[in-house]
Design brief:
single chain; alpha+beta; Elongation Factor Tu (Ef-tu), domain 3; OB fold (Dihydrolipoamide Acetyltransferase, E2P); 3 domains; six-stranded antiparallel barrel; four-stranded antiparallel beta sheet
């Protein structure tokens, strides 16, 4: 019995000792820093390019030759020859208006022109007749006949009635001459009036002919149809009569040279300068980066929702024509860029109380499993930071 009792005491003491040692171990583990580091928080120092930038968000537009096509003639659309996205050349017919009414007006005007020209011909003939009558040939002949009749009458060779006939013919010739002379001025005025009438009708013919030409609406440039506003049967008003209120037929644009019209917050606009390079991306071509350059900065900001932003235009080369008008685009304007430098995730950079920068690297020999390394940091993007000194390529840093 004594042996059994002694065994139980030793067993109880052993269990109690194990429990105490376990408790001590747990407290020691809780009060000491971990010596192991989560592998997902380890990142390598890499070599690459890093840039400090400002992003302008906006849309793609033609940099030049964005033209709204309006008609010089009024009428109904008869044919539409192009559609949105089609490429056009100068002189190419885009839209044709119905010509029937204008052609009828032209035929009527041409008939009136022929009649007016005939009136001019008649007036000129009348003028020539009056000029002939105004000359002294008939008067001279009548006067000579009358002179001979005087001699014959004095010699009693002709009767009084014959003498009176030659006298009357002379008077008639003189009257015709006086009337013709007076009529010359009238016929000259009539010719001028009828010629003016011809010119007036000719102007109508020219105007209608021009309007007929206007019924074929043509492209003035090489470009692409950006939008089409009319269909067959649509009514079109003339810009010559309606001005800016005339019907917009199409919008054309030259998409070889385009720009991104974006907005930059007033906080960043002071950093943006004309001539800075930019990288442009669009949703349509997610893997493709287009190169561009800032060429215009608006001097006047626009406030929306209590935020002031400034319009920035970034020119983009578009030789393949991939970028289309009104595509949403992001233009990353490069303020500063360093190539082939050491970079780390910015989340690994720590600032001490003196605002000095350092990182932590794995160190199995230390009590905490990590060691502080002072570093000099260059430019940062908010995602990655440039390392100027303190680390080398391939080193590991710990994310904080």
């Amino acid at each position: 019995m004594a042996k059994k009792k002694k065994f139980k005491i030793w067993l109880i003491l052993l269990i109690f000792t194990i429990i105490i040692l376990a408790v001590i171990g747990i407290f020691a583990q809780m009060n000491s820093a971990p010596t192991t580091i989560d592998i997902s928080s380890l990142k390598k120092v890499e070599r690459g390019n890093i840039a400090r930038s400002v992003v302008a968000t906006g849309v793609v537009e033609p940099i030049s030759n964005r033209i709204e096509i309006r008609s010089k003639a009024s009428g109904i659309v008869k044919h539409v020859h192009v559609d949105v996205g089609d490429r056009v050349a100068p002189g190419q017919v885009l839209v044709e208006l119905d010509r029937d009414q204008l052609q009828a007006q032209l035929r009527e005007a041409e008939a009136n022109r022929l009649a007016a020209r005939a009136d001019v011909v008649a007036a000129r003939a009348e003028f020539r007749r009056n000029r002939i009558l105004a000359e002294e040939y008939d008067v001279k002949l009548a006067r000579a006949n009358h002179s001979r009749s005087i001699e014959l009458f004095e010699q009693n060779l002709i009767s009084k009635s014959d003498f009176d006939i030659t006298s009357g013919r002379l008077e008639e010739a003189l009257n015709r001459q006086r009337a013709a002379t007076a009529a010359i001025g009238v016929t000259e005025a009539s010719i001028a009036q009828k010629e003016a009438r011809v010119s007036q009708i000719q102007a109508v013919v020219d105007r209608i002919s021009e309007e007929l030409n206007y019924t074929s609406i043509r492209s003035p440039i090489y470009g692409i149809v950006l939008s089409r506003e009319v269909e067959t049967g649509s009514a079109v008003s003339s810009i010559l009569t309606m001005g800016a209120g005339a019907t917009r037929v199409m919008i054309l644009g030259d998409m070889k040279d385009v720009y991104v019209r974006g907005q930059v917050n007033e906080i960043d606009i002071g950093k943006v300068k004309v001539g800075l390079p930019a990288r442009i991306t669009v949703e349509t071509y997610k893997e493709k980066v287009f190169q561009g350059k800032v060429y215009k900065i608006a001097p006047l900001g626009v406030e929306r929702n209590n935020v002031t932003s400034f319009e920035v235009r970034v020119s983009v080369d578009n030789p393949e024509g991939l970028l289309l008008a009104n595509m949403s685009a992001n233009a990353e304007i490069i303020l500063e860029e360093h190539l082939n430098v050491l970079t780390i995730p910015e989340g690994a950079v720590v600032f001490d109380m003196n605002k000095k920068t350092y990182v932590e690297v794995p160190d199995p020999a230390s009590e905490t499993g990590r060691r502080r390394v002072d570093v000099d940091v260059g430019i940062s993007t908010g995602i990655r930071a440039e390392i100027l000194s303190g680390l080398k390529e391939g080193d590991q840093v710990i994310l904080q």
